[in-house]
Amino acid sequence: MTVVRNSTSHEERTATQSREKGIELVTLRHIERVNDTIRLMRLYSTRQDHPIKFLAGQWLDVFLPGLSKAGGFTITSTPREAQPEKNSPAYLELAIQKSRNPPAQWLWRPVEEILNQGLRVRVGGDFTWPPTTLNVDGIKRLVLVAGGVGINPLISILAHLMRQQHRKRPDEIVFIYGTKASGSQINADEILFLPRLKALLDNDAASRLQLKLFLTGVSNEDLGRARGLPPDTVAGRITESDLEESLGEASMRDGTVCYVCGPQVMTDTFVEFLASRKGMTKERVLCEKWW
């Protein structure tokens, strides 16, 4: 993630989480604008015979030239894309939000200054699929709740799951995404990962995938004029009723697991609410705290 609420460094905040021992060498070879505040970047391994392994949901320690402390950025691509294939070199994708955080500022320098730069990275993080604390075979319904750039680990998890054989993923997946949109002319292509979500929804394998998009900063009239939004799009915030509905029937919730990632207040509130619902337990509500 890239939004920092205090002066504690990424490495200090995540000191208790799992980390690989090795440092990997990569090259920043692709930079793509999503909107005025978010860039997508692809890091290519300098050794294509040595793929970088990670679990969906993990992040990178990114060591940048001239900075004493590493930045922490979630990997938004899938583990499969980190494996080299014929005519398709391996890469790791990051979504970098513009902020005052020094590593984010470095990665928001003019493209010509940073493109093709060599960087050092290290994989880490415990907010992953498969979950390390649960029996994955018992998960029948997976609820993914994203707020803003909190979508980063969840898009990796969802895309990874949708590429799995049916028997290797939950029977039902509910993806709830709340984010800001601005202006009366909504550009769906500038909403972070919305085109990717729509493509996953249109895939033949997505018969059990539900996507619910919540846009703040717009009106129902704005939605009526918009093009390219998924059918289940709402003007407003995610409510407790929406969360309750996402869990399914109370009598069937012993196989329901939730992943939540977003701003601090949202995450804390949603985790507490979901864990308190009938048929749920706090062990089956997982979250990423990146602030």
UniProtKB/TrEMBL annotation:
All residue ranges annotated as the FAD-binding FR-type domain in the record: 21-137
GO MF terms held by the record: oxidoreductase activity
Domain of life: Eukaryota
Disulfide bond as UniProt keyword: no
This protein's UniProt keywords: NAD, Oxidoreductase
A GO cellular component entry from the record: mitochondrion
Listed name of the protein: Ferredoxin reductase-like protein
Organism in which the protein naturally occurs: Myriangium duriaei CBS 260.36
Lineage: Eukaryota, Fungi, Dikarya, Ascomycota, Pezizomycotina
